[in-house]
Amino acid sequence: MSNNPIYAAIEAGGTKWLVSVGTSPETAVQTRIPTEHPEVTVGAAVDFIAEQIKQQGAIQAIGIGSFGPIGINPDDTDYGVIGKTPKPHWTGVDLFSTFSQFNVPLKIESDVNAAALAEAKSLLPNDEGRLIYITVGTGIGAGVVDNGRVSNGVHHPEMGHIRLPHHPDDNYAGHCPIHGACLEGLACGPAIIDRWGKDLSTLGSSHESHDIIAYYLGGFAANLLLTYAPNYIVLGGGVSLTEGLLSRVRQQAFKQLGGYLARFNQADGLGAVIQAPSLDTLSGISGAYLLAAQALQAHCA
Ligand code: ZN
User: Fold this and answer.
1) Staple partner for 216: which of 155, 187, 198, 264, CB 3.0–4.6 Å?
2) How far away, in angstroms, is 163 Cα from ligand 1 center?
């Protein structure tokens, strides 16, 4: 094995797939494929990897971080299979079988778990500590990494669907097709557009929407601090990029904790914990590379 193995890494998102082949996310050759009918999107990803193998040489492992729900336990029959999703034609799509055709070690995780892995690698030296990565975009999801490994239960967490109290000035019924006003139903990108007609950046920072969304995300962060006691909570995804939102989320988390966790004796104290992604928009694809490396390592062990 060479010192720098060539990997195929896929960030399989709900609106686009990023497929990358190379030795690192920074130097790899990559392509973006819109998430359309699975035959088209998955087919294009397979073709791209096959073409890159011709150009770069054999790959040694594949890592995939996928939108979910997706089976993430290698011992289960639904490993790498997309679960029940409102996205047309995608329920039951078997990523594990499809990408097994390359005959290399393969590891599949949820997209947020992959991003969490990469952020943890970046922010927690020596793989010590706990990090939670939250994405707020077309949906809301969160993944937990403990000491350098993704922490799942019998399935990957579905924290976007927890319930939080309504903001006193928000009577929106919610956007989630299953729960209505769960966290995702109240604070994801489509819920913002459905409620106010525009995204947060366009609405402007003095619009009530900013305080309302920060109330929900701050409440979520406070709950995570209370339940997981993480070293870091990283807030990623398109909605989180809204200017000024991160600071409001910290303030809301501080307010809703009510001084209970003494180590955060002022809102500034949360600045060290609730952060923007250190890898900018590369968290997801970097995580897929780490998954590939873990697959290869497990195979060689
Ligand atoms: Zn829901």
Assistant:
1) 187
2) 8
Distance of CA 158 from the midpoint of ligand 1 (Å): 9
Dist. CA 183 → ligand 1 center (Å): 7
* Pairing, β 61-66 against β 7-12: parallel
CA–centroid distance, 160 to ligand 1, in Å, is 7
- Asked whether the whole model's pTM tops 0.90, one would answer yes
Look at residue 36 and tell me if it is in a domain.
yes
Please state, in angstroms and rounded to a whole number, the distance separating the CA atoms of residues 272 and 286: 23
Confidence label for 1 from pLDDT (cuts 50, 70 and 90): very low
B/e letters for 54-88, b = 16+ CB within 10 Å, e = fewer, are eeeeebbbbbbbbbbbbbbeeeeebbbbbeebeee
User: Collapsing DSSP states into helix, strand and coil, what is residue 145?
Assistant: strand
Give the Å distance between the CA of 91 and the centre of ligand 1.
17
Residues 189, 40 share a domain: no
57 sits in the region (left: phi over 0; alpha: psi -120 to 50; else beta) called left
Number of domains composing the chain:
2
The helix (run of H) or strand (run of E) holding residue 143 is: strand 140-146
Residues 6+ apart with CB under 8 A from 253: 218, 219, 221, 222, 225, 270, 274
Q: How far is the CA of 121 from the centre of ligand 1 (A)?
A: 30
pLDDT tens digits for 186-241?
A: 999 999 999 999 999 999 999 999 999 999 999 999 999 999 999 999 999 999 99
User: pLDDT tens digits, residue range 46-67?
Assistant: 999 999 999 999 999 999 999 9
238: domain CATH number?
3.30.420.40
Residues 160 and 102 reside in one and the same domain: no
Ligand 1 center–CA 157 separation, angstroms: 13
Q: How far is the CA of 165 from the centre of ligand 1 (A)?
A: 14
